[in-house]
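Because discrete structure vocabularies remain unfamiliar, we turn briefly to a single example record, giving the amino acid sequence and backbone structure tokens:
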Amino acid sequence: MNTVFIPIETIDALRGSPLHPFVERYVALLKQQGYADGTAKLHIRLFVHLQRWLKARGYSDLDKLDELLFEAFLREYSIGRHSHLGAPMALRRFLGVLREAGVTRPAKMPSLPPARRLTDDYRCFLRDQRGCSVLTVGKYGQHVDRFLSQLFGIGPVDMRQITFANVIAFVEGTTSDHGQCFTKQVINAIRSFLRFLHYCGKLKSDWAGSVPRIACWQLAGLPKPLSPDAVLKILDSCDQTTIVGRRDHAILLLLARLGLRPGEIAAMKIDDIDWESARLTVRSNKGRGWARMPLPEDVGKAIARYLRTDRPSSPSRNVFVRIPAPHNPLATSRAVAARATAAMVRVGVKSARKGAHIFRHSLASDMLRQGASLDEIGRVLRHTNVRSTAIYAKVDINALRRLAVPMPGGER
């Protein structure tokens, strides 16, 4: 609190109270997470009102403090002229400081609905019995969560309601606005869950095989890349006069120049960059190890500028972090992909796909136009199966022309 200018009467109101030493810890935590001094002042005034409220009601022991008590305080506090929108979050964070110090009771674990407990058991089965990757466990668990919530909500689970008709209705309702790959993923998740229920004895028979598959042939589709001009337009759309714009420009360069997946960018650590040899260690988000890739000059300069002048101080070793406090890492692929989607919408690029994965297709198609072989493209994109790269042969029109069979009595 000594590093933040606080009126003396505010400090006097806290000094000597049981809250005082923990308010100091709280302010230190705010400073560590990058919050402004104005936020700290606002929260300290909140704790002054909390201290007075507790004293008026005879709460002298900190071990009585919990979520219910703070909710009661907020109901009265929000009526007065001192209320502010950040009060609930500030009190939750302050309660965390008290619990970390061991001066108040630990948080009560919320009682999970029966459907959620069943999904958690299924996730453990996938991880421990089937050896599935974190990505598969997350995706399948998400679909099953949605399926069970739709059937049972927070009520008890009745296996008699898991019928063929309900399964088909869920798949049709969930996938109506999505493509074949997403639909296939949902069906595979439900089939896997039904096998799990039979394995556990919750279903008498395994009727996962009765859930129809969809036609989703390998290499049946075509990549839908962006043109080089469109990619350049997206990169140039970042406002590099702002910190957020320079950070997002570095993220988009990693997508466009190296074809990284959003999850790989989210997982990137400062120690993964070897500046002397201009190489980058890429850790796969699909549980397939890691790879070393060259770091192009423009990508390296963008990341170096961001790290040197723009990245907020953070205890995290992740390269990319939130600019507003708290400066937590962009730890999920969704957070990174959102930057790409926002850039495409900002410049009005028309594309059949809006996600970050389109940059991988665009990079591969551009390499193909410049004469790269499929093997070279596969190495850049870090494909483990040659079939993943083979789809780009279908967009190599010049090579395909040489394979065209002459029409009888006509031109090729």
About this structure: The two ends are 82 Å apart (CA to CA).
